[in-house]
Amino acid sequence: MKKIIIGNNLLGKLDNLFDFGQFSKIAVLTDENIQISLIGQISQIKKSLNRELVIITIPAGEKFGKNIETVKKIWKKMFESGLDRQSLLINLGGGVICDMGGFAASTFMRGIEFINIPTTLLAQVDASIGGKTGIDFNGIKNAIGVFKNPIGVVIDVQTLKTLPKREFVSAFGEIIKHGVISGRGHFDLVTSKKPEEFDQKEIIKIIKQSIIIKSNIVKKDPKETTGLRKVLNLGHTIGHAVESLSWETNKPLLHGEAIAIGMIAESHLACFSRPIHNLRGCVAELTKGVVKNAGLPTKIRNIKKEDILKIILSDKKNLSGKINWSLPQRIGKVLINVEVPDDLVVKAIKSIII
Predict the structure, then answer these.
(1) Which of 41, 106, 225, 338 has a 20 to 30 Å separation from 319 between CA atoms?
(2) What are residue 313's DSSP bridge partners?
(3) Is 255 a catalytic site residue?
């Protein structure tokens, strides 16, 4: 990735940030909600670049759109609009847009460049960086995708003003995870107040630190080949299963909410595994406490442990049918490739079910 730029009112200054003259055409991928709430920002982009843009709009929400059928529609619009291998795709939206737009761009005509402009706090600290693109398939989150970095990420904190409180708070599932991974400095900062109590200056600091934490890990293991990047999977094995299953209930979870619940379950799993792996410390109650204080859910309803186990066994991070867990030993220390007996996994899952 060449650039990560963070600031205020950046969408009207894009022409100063990148050389857009090198691209034959520019398309903006967004969703129905973003197009309505950020129509002014799209106009800003047009004015800033002083050229016509191809606007591609898809349905909002992962449950309805993050799949191959939606990608086909994106590709079709790109072809119909005359995009070629020298074109650029700007992904303007949340994590779904960044994930799916990156995948569509990376595969269109064997790959064109793209820029991420994340408009949710969650996407700003997570999905827009790291080089993972993808779509959901067969009930499994991000089962199909490629590793491809955008040429830049533009984080305009002004876009957070239109964000509903629940979505803003949801981001702290991933933000707290970064704190558990990195150590007391970031952990103490992001858990020192409730999410809505941080001012804009503090939020910018939190975004910057989260990006640095994730970027430093990704640089050491960009394609998850050495295993170092697996620490970022904390909370995701159970969290992704819970998230997918929640879509079939009357109370679907947001991604950050599911990761928070997954992190609690996997923290319990680490505690249960101490005698087997000679682990020291236990952060399950601490994790549950800070998640609850942030206003995030700590338990789930109307989801069966058997269904969670079934999805976990299909997790793309598994090797030879074995689940490789990333488990927290203490704040700042996450162990990877930990194998755990099934009965302890069931016990951990039960800890989050009402």
Answers:
(1) 106
(2) none
(3) yes
Per-residue confidence (pLDDT) for residue 320, from 0 to 100: 63
- β-strand pairing of 333-338 with 325-330: antiparallel
pTM, full prediction: 0.92
Catalytic residue among 91, 233, 257, 324: 233
Does the active-site annotation cover 229? yes
Cβ neighbours of 39 (radius 10 Å): 11
pLDDT, tens only, 213-247: 999 999 999 988 888 899 999 999 999 999 999 99
Look up residue 216 and give its amino acid. N
Indicate which residue of 177, 178, 186, 236 is catalytic: 236
16 noted as active-site residue:
no
The CA distances from residue 68 to 60, 71, 148, 251, 310, in Å, are: 15, 5, 18, 25, 23
Active site residue 110: yes
Confidence band, pLDDT 50/70/90 cuts, at residue 257: very high
Q: What pLDDT, in 10s, does the model give residues 314-329?
A: 776 676 678 889 999 9
Confidence of residue 169 (pLDDT cuts 50, 70, 90): very high
Marked catalytic residue, from 25, 255, 268, 288:
255
Choosing from 62, 113, 167, 174, which is the catalytic residue?
A: 174
pLDDT-based confidence at residue 1 (cuts at 50, 70, 90): low
Residue 132 among the catalytic residues? yes
CB 169 within 8 A of CB 19: no
Q: Is 322 a catalytic residue?
A: no
- Please say whether the beta carbons of 235 and 173 come within 8 A: yes
Burial of 145-172, coded b for 16+ CB within 10 Å and e otherwise, reads: beebbbebbbbbbbbbebbeeebbbbbb
Helix, strand or coil for residue 10? coil
Amino acid at 114: F
Question: Order of strands across the sheet with 54-58?
Answer: 3-7, 152-156, 113-118, 88-93, 26-31, 54-58
